[in-house]
Amino acid sequence: MKIAVCPGSFDPVTNGHMDVIRRACGMFDSVIVAVMNNSAKRCLFSIEERAQMLEKALASIPNARVEIFTGLLADFAARCGATAIVKGLRAVSDFEYEFQMALINRSLNSGTETIFLPCSTEYMYLSSSMVKEIARYGGDITAYVPEGLAAIIEEKIQGERNGDQHVGV
Length: 169
Ligand code: PNS
Known about the structure:
By secondary structure, the chain is an alpha/beta fold. It has six helices and five strands. Residues 7-9, 36, 38, 41, 72-73, 101, 104 line the site of 4'-phosphopantetheine.
């Protein structure tokens, strides 16, 4: 049984993430989508909210499941018995950081290799930050996020504007 981990902060999940996850699901028997914290980013959504959105988005993919993990990715991959960490690359600008992460993760856990999938061209410009920026200025984000999530994201952005602490998914 070949297991892969698709890690990310997913704040929120976009169609670009879904493209990479779907392709990973075609390559591995089981894909664990790991919702994690990136210490360089301050997330809009709580880790539980991010996981709930992913669960909705992945409902029709039988060999993908969502887990929350707040420790090191290398430890999580070892605990899951994953042979691969799958990450999407949008542009050369992503590469330096991702390459460094791949080397660190392999030095922490030599049993897991990082595999980079180039994103599909229609998602080259897409990021969670862009989705939030569009929503903050009242733009339509339905084309950029999985079905059923645009309203949840817009509600959260509205809550942020009103100073709310928590908006349910
Ligand atoms: O979607 P992102 O923000 O690019 O995902 C980055 C993420 C969450 C995968 C990365 O920050 C991560 O692996 N965080 C967990 C802590 C860790 O293992 N850091 C790398 C070794 S120092």
